[in-house]
Automatic annotation (TrEMBL), chains A, B:
It comes from Planosporangium thailandense. Gene3D superfamilies: Winged helix-like DNA-binding domain superfamily/Winged helix DNA-binding domain (1.10.10.10). Keywords: DNA-binding, Transcription, Transcription regulation. This is Helix-turn-helix transcriptional regulator. Residues 6-103 form the HTH arsR-type domain. Pfam families: HTH_20. SMART domains: HTH_ARSR. It comes from the Bacteria. PANTHER family: TRANSCRIPTIONAL REGULATOR, ARSR FAMILY, TRANSCRIPTIONAL REGULATORY PROTEIN. SUPFAM superfamilies: Winged helix' DNA-binding domain.
DNA sequence: CTCTTGGTTCGACTTTTTTGGAACAAGCCC
DNA sequence: GGGCTTGTTCCAAAAAAGTCGAACCAAGAG
């Protein structure tokens, strides 16, 4: 029962993946998972209420970005790297590599 | 006057780029522009009303994805390939390369 | 069985996006 | 100047996303 359903990447449109990664919170989660290989759900973005966290993880899962392993009452989340890279070559690496714009101040009319 | 403003890619967060590309219509536009180098605004997604088209092009422009050259009353849109690849290595190519899920029918329980 | 823990689901609400009509602006041609 | 073509802006309505309390469920501990 505890099995979690994930889509076959062949059925996932790129836009869905992009969409999933286009949210700061989710991207942060993905990055955290990226270096660590697997993470217990509750260890991600602990600041936010669990309903919100659960929601974001669901979006990632349904976009085929993550895999969820159920262990007891816990969920271990990991990236579907190989598969992802087979279907969308270079996409995940490119996103993970991307640098953030060093917290630009309100940049008042230079 | 006629000059169109575009953001410096250093100020654009990846999520903004992903967001811009995460829309089917916009991605289609980007793909069209990709093979052709430059396109007159009105030659893109002609089915939709111009207000909508204009809106999508604005989103792409503000996400730093496209460059707009004004010629008379027309706007020629092109991709900011080099810049984009300098800031987000491999991202655009990966997105342009991505295959679409061959119009899956309602895939009734195979 | 009860309590706790880790997470999901429901429902409501807020914020963003998307969409597109209508009015407007600018360039071009006569 | 008019009239036509391109495209933007304004505005409002509709749809989609994000947020999160509260109720709920399943597994493990005692």
């Amino acid at each position: 029962m505890g099995e979690v359903t994930e889509p076959a990447l062949a059925d996932v449109p790129v836009t869905a993946v992009l969409q999933a990664l286009a949210d700061p919170t989710r991207l942060r989660m993905v990055r955290t998972i990226a270096d660590g290989g697997e993470r217990l759900c509750g260890m991600l973005e602990e600041q936010l209420p669990k309903a919100t966290r659960s929601h974001h993880l669901k979006v990632l899962r349904e976009a085929g970005v993550t895999h969820t392993r159920v262990v007891g009452t816990g969920r271990y989340v990991s990236l579907r790297r190989e598969e992802l890279d087979r279907h969308f070559p270079g996409l995940l690496p490119a996103v993970l590599t991307a640098a953030e714009p060093a917290a630009a101040e309100k940049r008042a009319a230079v």
